[in-house]
Each structure stands twice: as structure tokens, then as C-alpha cells.
Amino acid sequence: MNRLVSALLVSSTLLLAQSCSTLGQSGDASVEGDKHHGHHNHNEHGHHHGSHGHVNKPSVNTKAILTTPSTINLDKPNNLVIEIQDSEGNAVPDFEVFQEKIMHLIVVSDDLDFYDHIHPDYKGNGRFEVEANFPKPGDYTLFSDYKPTGKPERVSVVKVKAPGTSSSITEIEIKNTK
């Protein structure tokens, strides 16, 4: 029960943070072959609140490109590569440390049964590498949180599908007794 509550709390926080920032649409892609997966562009959405005394800065457009192994192995480490690019497809080379790390990667199963907070290693030229576990078949959402040097913090969202048949949702038995 604590895992479910924790997963819901983290997911809610990430969704709130995501909704408060200027994010575009996320693409979905299945994990088959050594492919690039869906990425998330960060664009302005035409929200207008007036200047409120603030100087408007141009938006920072970045996207995270995810590359996975040709086959996702369930419940074993899988090598993931995340490449951060600008809106023109160029690597974003420099990042600032925030919250003690350069990147935070949150992996959440879409049924909210699994959650992991990991820190990819920066290899240079916008490339991050990390090992991630996917304990069971199904869809997973990955939130990569990073801060390009001199720019605002960004959250990019990508999707991964772990192969196999997902089990049905576990029934929760509610009792009024201890």
C-alpha cells in the first residue's frame, strides 16, 4: 500500500510540475529494435498573462531522445541512452547540477505499481546513460529532469513498452477490520 501511495504522490507531483511548465506533446513508441523513442518538445503554448512586471524570455526548446536495447529484458538491467537536443536537433552540451545531480530520471509504470528514481551518468555532448529495470510487461513513462546551463529546468517525457502480456489490474480487497 505504501508503494502505491508513494507512486501516486510522485506521479501527481510530476504531473503538477509538468502542467505548470511550458510543454508540448509527447510521442509514444514501442520498444522494438535499437530505435529512438518518443520525445517531448518544450514549446510556448500561447498562454498570456501579461508581463506582470517580468521580462519575457524566449522559450528554451529541448527534447529528450531515448534509445533502448533491441529487446527490453524484464526485471534485469537495461541500458538506456538519453540524448538532449535543442529545437534544431543539435546536442545540448552543458548542464548545471541541481538537486545534487545533473539529471534525474523517474520511471513509473502506467499502472502506478512501479516507481524508480535514478540518476543517469553524463557522457558529454548531451548524452546520458543509465541502467533501468522494468519488472513486468506493460507501458512505462520516463520523466527526465535536467537544467541546461543558464536555462530553466526542463522535464521531458518519453514512453517505453516492456514486452509481454500485462497482467490485469490487481483487485484491492478493502476490509473494515484489522
Description:
The chain contains one helix and eight strands. By secondary structure, the chain is mainly beta. The chain has one domain (2-44, 60-162): Immunoglobulin-like (Sandwich), CATH 2.60.40. It has a four-stranded antiparallel β-sheet with strand order 1-2-6-5, with no helix packed on it. Strand 3 (103-109) and strand 4 (115-118) form a beta hairpin. The longest helix has 19 residues, at 2-20.
Task: List the keywords.
mainly beta, globular, 1 helix, 4-stranded antiparallel sheet, 178 residues, Immunoglobulin-like
Lay out the secondary structure:
Blueprint: H1 2-20, E1 62-67, E2 78-86, E3 103-109, E4 115-118, E5 121-124, E6 127-132, E7 138-146, E8 154-162
Helix-strand topology string:
HEEEEEEEE
CATH domain topology: Immunoglobulin-like
CATH top level assignment: Mainly Beta
SS element count, helices: 1
Largest sheet: 4 strands, antiparallel
Quick structural overview:
The chain is mainly beta and 178 residues long. It has one helix at 2-20; strands spanning 62-67, 78-86, 103-109, 115-118, 121-124, 127-132, 138-146, 154-162.
